[in-house]
Amino acid sequence: MDIAAAIIDLLGQRAASASICPSEVARALSPDPAGWRPLMQPVRDAAAALARADRIIITRKDEQLDPDALGSGPIRLRRGAGFSE
């Protein structure tokens, strides 16, 4: 299971200005419809790594977050400047 690839794939299916919720990634990766919640932290970790590489941007209420200081709470994932690399 390549979580980073799933994030890039889901963002690639949306408009360039669109965002996705990490739970969409977890649900897409979970074969069990009720078993996606344990994937949330791994998805957030993969998103942080992608954000460090400038491939995505992590936001909360339209404010860009530091991938090393996400804390808890809802986040959204958007394409970054290096998305297509």
UniProtKB/TrEMBL annotation:
Top-level taxon: Bacteria
Alphabetized Pfam families for the sequence: DUF3253
Record-linked SUPFAM superfamilies: Winged helix' DNA-binding domain (SSF46785)
Protein name (Swiss-Prot/TrEMBL): S-adenosylmethionine tRNA ribosyltransferase
Organism: Stenotrophomonas chelatiphaga
